[in-house]
């Protein structure tokens, strides 16, 4: 949670995802593609900064 210059509040998110059975490169591609079609991500797009952190296990 942080302050906006206008005095309101804002949110940002660090999303940590662990995926088994994929290479790191493919796991990152999958997470990025999923983020693009996720209804929640689409609803908050432009309102909440989201940082994706992907780990292939």
UniProtKB/TrEMBL annotation:
PANTHER family: ORGANIC HYDROPEROXIDE RESISTANCE PROTEIN-LIKE. InterPro entries: KH_dom-like_a/b, OHR, OsmC/Ohrsf. Coiled coil: none annotated. This is OsmC-like protein. One of its GO terms (biological process) is response to oxidative stress.
